[in-house]
Design goal:
binds 2-acetamido-2-deoxy-beta-D-glucopyranose; EC 4.2.1.1; glycoprotein; 8 helices; Carbonic_anhydrase_a-class; alpha+beta; binds zinc ion; Carbonic Anhydrase II; zinc; single chain; CA_dom_sf
């Protein structure tokens, strides 16, 4: 038997099994990475029925009067945060003093990290779309439910992770605090490199809490492999603004683990598969709703028909 005939086939099969996952933008004929359509072959959850991101069809959302505002704890603290290039995106690590409760979430959550999804060269790069429209950029703040310590512990709880998502819209003026973020990304160009942003305040990059009463809620997944179906998603109506200069700059800073420019880092939208997207009702008298959180959340989850 001539093994030299079989060896290349065998090697290519092996490399398919262990291929690094990648975004569509990274895939090319001479790159064997696993692009989003192939994620499920390696990470079965990515082919599940509660995947994210999704397209939100505003005419089909269900308005729910029992989705109260959030309580953002530690968001105004001045903190030193570590930024690390993870090969597919850059993560900004948050300390445990940053927490989240309210919003009909079933418990207390501790912040873990935040990160952005962007396009490149003027192309939009949000993960969620609204009525088919993709926005320039999206911010995700990841929180883990107590007492879980990490995603692996939370992944069997369908609300184990609370993800807050903010869409960016292009504006004439610079976002006053994003240049710090852009500069930090410039210091973590390559996979594995890290830096610190001293004296950072999460609230500086966000709208004020009083403008965050209106949001969409649905149950979904992480948007990168393993696509764990453990996420209570919140997408705020209120957008953040970013200038075209900043938008251009932010996608220029980092490189993927392959060395290519880190652009178009978003997963394509996934089917709703019978899920319902809820929308909170803008209202001032929400105190009594807080006591209903359990009922609401089980209604929000239960009507999807996916809780047993
Ligand atoms: C941030 O880092 C600086 C310099 O290392 C240090 O003096 C300061 O105490 C740190 N702040 C916090 C909130 O940890
Ligand atoms: C990216 O860097 C991390 C260390 O931070 C390393 O574990 C990983 O293997 C690297 N990925 C690639 C594809 O080189
Ligand atoms: Zn994300």
């Amino acid at each position: 038997m001539d093994f030299s005939v079989y060896l290349p086939t065998l090697l290519s099969l092996l490399s398919q099994c262990t291929a690094q996952w990648c975004y569509q933008s990274q895939y090319s004929c001479d790159d064997t990475c696993s692009d989003p359509i192939r994620w499920a072959a390696q990470f079965p959850s990515c082919g599940g029925l509660r995947q994210s991101p999704i397209n939100i069809v505003t005419s089909k959302v269900h308005v729910n009067s029992a989705l109260p505002p959030f309580e953002f704890i530690g968001y105004t603290n001045t903190i030193n945060i570590t930024v690390k290039n993870k090969g597919h995106s850059a993560h900004f690590t948050l300390p445990q003093s940053v927490r989240l409760t309210g919003g009909a979430l079933p418990g207390q959550y501790r912040a873990a990290q935040f990160h952005f999804h962007w396009g490149g060269d003027g192309r939009p790069g949000s993960e969620h779309t609204i009525d088919g429209e993709r926005f320039p950029m999206e911010l995700h703040i990841v929180h883990i439910k107590e007492p879980y310590g990490c995603l692996a512990e939370a992944e069997h709880d369908m609300a184990g992770i609370a993800l807050l998502a903010f869409l960016f819209e292009e504006a004439a003026d610079d976002h006053p605090y994003l240049d710090t973020v852009i500069a930090a990304l410039g210091r973590v160009q390559n996979n594995g490199s890290s830096t610190v942003i001293p004296n950072f305040r999460l609230s500086d990059i966000l709208p004020s809490a009083k403008d965050l009463h209106r949001y969409y809620r649905y149950v979904g997944s992480m948007t990168t492999p393993g696509c764990e179906q453990a996420v209570a998603w919140t997408l705020f109506h209120r957008t953040l603004s970013i200038s075209s200069r900043q938008l251009y700059a932010i996608a220029q800073q980092c490189r993927f683990w392959t060395g290519k420019p880190m652009t178009d880092i978003f997963r394509p939208t996934q089917p709703l598969d019978g899920r319902v997207v809820y929308q909170s009702k803008a209202s001032g008298t929400l105190t009594s709703a807080v006591h209903l959180w359990y009922g609401v959340f089980s209604a929000v989850l239960g009507t999807t028909g996916l809780i047993h």
